[in-house]
Amino acid sequence: LFLQGHDEEAVVDMGKISSTINTNFEKEELESHRAVYIGVHVPLGKPGRRRHRHRGHRHHRRKREKDNDREDGRESPSYDTPSQRVQFILGTEDDDEHIPHDLFTEMDELCFRDGEEYEWRETARWLKFEEDVEDGGDRWSKPYVATLSLHSLFELRSCILNGTVMLDMRADTLDEIADMVLDSMIASGQLDESIREKVREALLKRHHHQNEKKLSSRIPLVRSFADIGKKHSDPHLLERNGLLASPQSAPGNLDTGKSVDVKAPGTGGSRENSTVDFSKVDMNFMRKIPSGAEASNVLVGEVDFLERPIIAFVRLSPAVLLSGLTEVPVPTRFLFLLLGPVGKCPQYHEIGRSIATLMTDDVFHDVAYKAKDRNDLLSGIDEFLDQVTVLPPGEWDPSIRIEPPKNVPSQAKRKAPKFPNGSTPTGRDLKEEGHHAGPELQRTGRLFGGLILDIKRKAPFFLSDFKDALSLQCLASILFLYCACMSPVITFGGLLGEATEGRISAIESLFGASLTGIAYSLFAGQPLTILGSTGPVLVFEKILFKFCRDYGLSYLSLRASIGLWTAFLCIVLVATDASSLVCYITRFTEEAFAALICIIFIYEALEKLVHLGEVYPFNMHNDLNKLTSYSCVCSEPEKPSNETLRMWRTMNKSREDIAWNNLTVSECLEYHGVFRGSACGHHGPYIPDVLFWSVILFFATFFLSSFLKKFKTKRYFPTKV
């Protein structure tokens, strides 16, 4: 073991192996370290040769091992369950080279190209969920939750247990990584020296990525205004993902057909400047990768010159940008290699999916960064197996892909470190911690303190919120939001006009929504918030208008007073930081209002349909055999009312002057006539066409909209169509 001062560079651990064959250190490297030997017995012979040990020696050996753990910065825990072990690993302090980053995982499989030559072909990728190359197609599948077989997870554990594990390898190129891995395999007896060159040649084969064919034939149809005059390569995007462009690659100098030197991030930085061809980079997918992300490459395949599989798990330190290995220029941190004899390609594929899915797991992802040896990785796999749910094979179809959840559950309980007294944090503690996670929901204790902090946080991004919309790519969203804002305003405006007898109708609602929407977007700092009438507002307006009508009050005056009083209360809430209480509101309130709005919409639609049935009635007791005898005529009223007589005198008409049998429906209603006949209703002749056609439109519109909403996920057309 080597102990170094804090101001000195650590000796490189070339993979946690006991053999140092083919490992050379420069003289300057050795002279710059202060080596201190600690008395740890390292047996050179076969283990277990000395069967009789003195109890005192065993005691001293355990004491020395405990001291070694403390010198390493990790005290050995008194528990040994996988969950506790993982919590212990995650509780260790991070040095600069073991800080976890977001990971992009890519799986390449070794296959024949045109039946002649091997090449690595990309078959799957993971950001958070799995995406596969569709069988026989040139497109990616939708992201879905990966479903793994339990057997493949156990095989992966066996691979890590018996394969080559090299942590904190320092290498600059894929050639150096291959040489170090093969040297380690030969030294440990996993690989025969005679086939070293064949394995090395297979490892260094060309990598074919899925996006290469698509990018070569794709023509960018829509480009934003900000990109006009520029090329597709975006240096700010590369810098956001941890790739520092060279000084020569200014925004105006980047070209899709040119190559740019980029450097991988890290504390020490990469010692290689890899050349990146931006014409082969899918910049749209690059924008989805989080800032500072690193890559994890999974290489699996079968070859005809191996008799048994060879496995290697490599963690680079620092991460290195390996040109051509990953479809996006992201520095590589992890490499998993599995090559085996021909005939077990599906098995190797499932093992590759297992390790790739493990790298996307929040807990194992952190364990992989902080692992000190092979046992830490095995503990991470065991902890993952403890959390796995097994589904019976006869009760579930594995080919069904599970859609990603809208809200991914938190893994804080799995990561929670043990307290000094051995207890774990309760759910209430985690909930309280989550309530005060963001600075926006914390009380300041000052008058308008929260508003002042909001202005300071929003000021740097205020103009960009509006300038970013000046893009052709936003045109579809603008049109959609225009319709989404306009439809409920007009709909509720019409309903308000009926409820308030024209006091507030569609015109007033449209003007009010436009005025308040513009003011809110300019001064509230939230230009994406949609304002407009909703179901609860409609209910409130109906109740308020009925109240004013019953008590003889002016509706519009009272409505203006309510608006001013609401504005005053909002100012008081802002001044006292009352918005910090929002974090304690559950989803019940949101779902209750959403349910109320849905019920109001459904009720109003059905009420309209029932009203049409009353205005345009139809014969409920129709007899097809008597269709020829059905008739409806206008006749004079038997006992006209005084109002009817006054109306006749006003029109200079008398009962005898009116030709009742020749009057139309409107004229009969005008002269207060009476409809008589078997085809008459209360308000006139039966009119079945209006109600029946309205019912057809009602349900056809509903089912058509529902069908079109689900149709976009069907397989009738490609995704672009």
Automatic annotation (TrEMBL):
Domain Band 3 cytoplasmic: residue ranges: 101-398
Domain of life: Eukaryota
Official protein name in the record: Anion exchange protein
Topological relation to the membrane, as annotated: Multi-pass membrane protein
Main localization category: membrane
Composition skew (Basic residues), residue ranges: 47-64
Bicarbonate transporter-like transmembrane domain ranges (all copies): 446-721
Lineage: Eukaryota, Metazoa, Chordata, Craniata, Vertebrata
UniProt keyword Ribosomal protein, yes or no: no
Listed Basic and acidic residues bias regions: 65-77
One BP annotation, GO: regulation of intracellular pH
Localization, UniProt: Apical cell membrane; Basolateral cell membrane; Membrane
Listed GO MF terms: monoatomic anion transmembrane transporter activity; sodium:bicarbonate symporter activity; solute:inorganic anion antiporter activity
Keywords, in A-Z order: Cell membrane, Disulfide bond, Glycoprotein, Ion transport, Membrane, Sodium, Sodium transport, Transmembrane, Transmembrane helix, Transport
Start and end residues of each stretch annotated as Disordered: 41-83, 243-273, 401-436
Gene Ontology CC terms, in alphabetical order: apical plasma membrane; basolateral plasma membrane
Family in the record: Belongs to the anion exchanger (TC 2.A.31) family.
Record-annotated membrane-spanning stretches: 475-497, 504-523, 562-585, 592-610, 690-708
